[in-house]
Amino acid sequence: MSATTEAIEMARIAAVAADEKLASDVVVLDVSEQLVITDCFVIASAPNERQVNAIVENIEDRLREAGHKPVRREGTREGRWALLDFVDVVIHVQHNEERNFYALDRLWKDCPTVPVEGLGQHGPADANGAGTAAEAEESEL
Hints:
It holds the Pfam family RsfS. This protein is of the alpha+beta class. The chain has helices at 5-20, 49-65, 96-102, 104-107, 133-140; strands at 24-30, 40-46, 72-74, 81-85, 89-95. The longest helix has 17 residues, at 49-65.
């Protein structure tokens, strides 16, 4: 049994919301074959605590706009590893150091990834006004 359509849509909203706040290495995993407690994990990371919390707030805002509210929220005070539990989707926003240490991606490597359109399109603008690194490189040519 794979993840429900609603869970995948929620996970995609969360992934794009994380990307809007410049989260790095955003991935959506379909863990429904491995876990009975949830369908999808969204994993994202940031280089500092303030950005972790900004990403979490944006995810909550976007999912609230879509009619979803977390049943559990942990780790936002410390800003090192925040967890948002929406039952069908569990979102992990980790400081880069925690992401490297705990390696959730490796732990769940057998789970299929869910493609998300639009990731990586919200990068910081450079002096030429390009948004992503690829766009910046292209504009220099």
